[in-house]
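Throughout our pipeline, every protein is held as a single compact record rather than as scattered files. This encoding replaces a full spatial description with a residue-level series of whole-number codes. The remainder of this section carries one protein's record, kept here as part of the documentation.
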Amino acid sequence: MARPCVEPVLPDATRQFGPRLAAFLLSASLLTVVQLVVDPPMLLAERFLPGAGWAEIMVLAGYASWLAGVLQQPGRWARIRGRVWLLFSMVFFGQLLLGLAGVEQCLMTGELHLPVPTMVVAGPLYRGEGLFMPILLVSTVLLVGPAWCSWLCYIGAWDNQLAGRRHLQKPLSPRWREMLRLGMLVLAVGGALGLRQLGVSSVMAAILGGSIGLIGVGIMIVVSARFGWMAHCTAFCPLGWLVVRLGKLSPFRLVLKPSCQGCGVCRPVCRFGALDREAWDRQKPHLSCTLCGDCLETCGAIELRFPGLSAAASRRLLSVLVVSLHAVFMGVARI
């Protein structure tokens, strides 16, 4: 009788070595391409002191390596993810504030664009140009699927922090949340094309776009912070509707094994509302799942899978990819 394949338990240092090395090399390689190819310089240190970009690459690659190692430690994933996600948001908006205060090196081009996720879709449609962010988004989603929404979105970190302050209460049904996000997407696309067709000024378009951003923040404060589920990300943000669907192009999948008994231990940690009785019965999370990974240590019946790899190896691969992209975004993501 064939024995089940069980991955051996490795010492911490051995288990961390591969992911740490891979994260260092991947993030350093991506940032080196940015340093050599992009003109004017994208890395912040290079803008202040020629040649300093190489030092920044080493710092960010070292940070990615450390973070990849930490994520291999039992019980650390969910807490660390929330912290580093918030750190990225703080760095992103900190640079924006410095840029607005007159430190021009902290701005990407000097042309101000609204830091509202909806504008990643609506902005290029209104302007008829500016495809950098959509291309970056699609490229990232191909690598890590919908994990963009739980690791790399500069706004989503706020929703995560506010929702995490309360015990999870029952969110809107998945169908209603998807309908609301789809409605917002139709409104954003139709509004952008309509404003362009009518020749509405960029100032007025910016005011309308900023209003959408403020409404989103209000939803975080009023709904997410009160009921414990990420209302902005799962019921308001149209970019999230696109990301979870484009994320199907990625080979990563979160699955519920047949051994799942629907005990409910995983539900409170899923602030995206992807795990409930319906999901347990069909052994598949709802579309709102962003592969955040917070649920993986709550129950052995939940696994992350990548074709040809074990569940543990799939998790290590995702950790390397997301922390590498996180480190790269820390270096290059600005307005």
Remarks:
- The first strand starts at residue 253 and ends at 256.
- The mean pLDDT is 90.
- Residues 113-250 form one domain.
